[in-house]
Amino acid sequence: MRFVDVLAGAAAISGAIAVPTKTLKRAGKFDFTGVSESGAEFGNTALPGQLGKDYTWPDHNAISTLIQKGFNTFRIPIMMERIIPDKLTGTVNETYAAGLDDIVQFVTGQGAYAVVDPHNFGRYYNNIITDVAGFGAWWTTVAKRYASNEKVIFDTNNEFHDEDNALVGQLNQAAIDAIRGAGATSQYIFVEGNSWTGAWHWTSSGTSEAMGKLTDPQDKIIYEMHQYLDSDGSGTSESCVSATIGQERIADATAWLKANNKKAIIGETAGGANAQCIQAVQGMLSYMADNSDVWKGWLWWGAGPWWANYMYSIEPPSGTAFTKVLPSLTEYI
User: Fold this and answer.
1) Is 226 helix (H, G, I), strand (E, B) or coil?
2) Quick one: DSSP state of residue 119?
3) Please, which pLDDT band fits residue 252 given cuts at 50, 70 and 90?
4) Secondary structure element (H or E) that encloses residue 35, with its range
C-alpha cells in the first residue's frame, strides 16, 4: 500500500489471553493465504517510538480467529530502524525484537507461517538504501534470530519504489545471500521489486529484468507482487475500476512467471466492501487458482488492532472486510 507515514489510531491493546489454535488451512490450490498484521510499523516518523503510543503488536486472539477461518500465513510489518537502530550494521534493540519474537512464536506455534516484513519501502531513516553490503548485514542479524524456525518466511523489503531497478535487484540478492549465510536454509524468501512491486507493471517498469536474475541455492524464492484494484492501483479507494480489473491487472505478470519458470504470491491486495470490488477480487483469485502452477497464494491488506473503521480492515471481529468481504472469499482460502 502506498503510504509512507502510517499513523497510529487511538486504540486499547487487548490483554486477553489467546487460546492456541492449530492452523486449519483448507485443501485449496494455494500454499499461502493470509493477511498482513499491521501495528509494529505504525508511527514510522517517530523513531524509535513508544509501544502503545506510536506502534503496537498484532493481537493473538485476532490471529487465532483468522487461523480458524483457514488462513495460514501472517505477514508482520516491522520498521528496520526499530529492530536495528542507528546503522544497518548495528545491534538489535532487544525490547522491540521481543515483541516480534512473541508474534513469530505465536503464529508459528499454531503451524502457520510468520512473514518477517521490513516495511521500509527500500529506505532506512527515510534515505534510499544504497549500501548493499549494509543491507545484507541487517538481514544477517535478523535471519540468525529465526534461522531454526522453518515456518518463518523472510520478506526482503516492502515496496521498493522510485529507485534504480538494478539496485533493487542487488539489494534483493544481498538479502538472499545474507539469509542463507546466516544459517536460515529451510525457509522461503519473498522478494519484492521496484515500482511498489506492482504486478500490473512488473514488466513495463523494467523491474522484472534484474529481479528475474535472482538466485537462491535452496530454490525457495517466491516473487511477492502487490495488486490493488482502484484507479491508480494505490489501495486508497473503496472503488474498483471494474468487476474484471483484478484478473486483467495480473495477466502480464502471469505470462512473465510462466515464461521464466518463477513462482509468486500477491502479497497485498484489497478492495472495498461493495459488489463490484468483491467480484473483482473473486475474479483475480479465481484466475490465480487456475494458474496455481505459478501463483502460490495471496495475502489481504490488512489486519491489526489499530485499524478501527479502515475500509479494508479484516481484523476480527468487526473489521469492514472481515464482516462484509471475507464471507465471499472463503473458497479461495
Assistant:
1) strand
2) -
3) very high
4) strand 32-37
DSSP structural state of residue 269: E
Please, which pLDDT band fits residue 28 given cuts at 50, 70 and 90?
confident
Average per-residue pLDDT in the chain?
A: 94
Strand, helix or coil for residue 104: helix
Q: What per-residue string of b and e applies to 45-61 under the rule 16 or more CB within 10 Å gives b?
A: eeebbebeebbbbbbbb
Residue position matching grid coordinates 490471529: 63
How far is CA 125 from its chain centroid? 20
- For the chain, how many residues are written? 333
- The catalytic position among 37, 41, 81, 159 is 159
Q: Annotated catalytic, 268?
A: yes
Q: Which one from 41, 192, 224, 268 is the annotated catalytic residue?
A: 268
CA angle (203 as vertex; 289, 162 as ends), nearest 5: 115
What does the alpha-carbon distance between residue 252 and residue 256 come to, in Å, rounded to a whole number? 6
Please state, in angstroms and rounded to a whole number, the distance separating the CA atoms of residues 251 and 240.
17
Q: How far apart are CA 260 and CA 45, in angstroms?
A: 39
User: Is the four-CA dihedral 118, 140, 142, 110 of positive or negative sign?
Assistant: positive
Q: Which residues are 33's β-sheet partners?
A: 298
Mean pLDDT of 4-13: 39
**What secondary structure does DSSP assign to 20-32, as a single string?**
P------SSS-SE
What is the secondary structure of 132-191 as a DSSP string?
HHHHHHHHHHHHHHTTT-TTEEEE--S---SS-HHHHHHHHHHHHHHHHHTT--SS-EEE
Our answer to whether residue 224 is catalytic in this structure is: no
